């Protein structure tokens, strides 16, 4: 039984999504803790601690989106069209 491109791309995109979910916990945890801190110094420390990881986590999203667009363009079109309103709400909210 050989692997075809659909199976390979599904595994790659699944791995990318899993890595994003696992590594994004640190960002989200700092974001939740950020709400309870009033001191500017402590907030700066929190933001500086998450800064190197933040960009890495967003890279997983770019890889996943690009892989989805390259391997499954119809699924990419359907998923992104369904996310237009939530994405705009996050941008303008």
Automatic annotation (TrEMBL):
InterPro entries from the UniProt entry: Cyt-d_oxidase_su2
Subcellular location: Cell membrane
Gene Ontology CC annotation, any one: cytochrome complex
One Pfam family cited in the UniProt record for this chain: Cyt_bd_oxida_II
MF terms in GO: electron transfer activity; oxidoreductase activity, acting on diphenols and related substances as donors, oxygen as acceptor
GO BP terms, alphabetized: aerobic electron transport chain
UniProt entry tagged with the keyword Transmembrane helix: yes
Residues that span the membrane, as ranges: 6-35, 74-92
Keyword line: Cell membrane, Membrane, Transmembrane, Transmembrane helix
Topology relative to the membrane: Multi-pass membrane protein
Family membership: Belongs to the cytochrome ubiquinol oxidase subunit 2 family.
Name of this chain's protein: Cytochrome oxidase subunit II
């Amino acid at each position: 039984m050989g692997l075809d491109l659909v199976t390979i791309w599904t595994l790659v995109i699944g791995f990318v999504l899993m890595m994003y979910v696992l590594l994004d916990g640190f960002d989200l945890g700092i974001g939740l803790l950020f709400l309870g801190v009033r001191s500017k110094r402590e907030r700066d420390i929190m933001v500086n601690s998450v800064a190197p990881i933040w960009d890495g986590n967003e890279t997983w999203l770019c890889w996943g989106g690009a892989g989805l667009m390259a391997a499954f363009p119809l699924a990419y079109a359907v998923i992104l069209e369904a996310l237009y309103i939530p994405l705009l709400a996050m941008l303008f909210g």
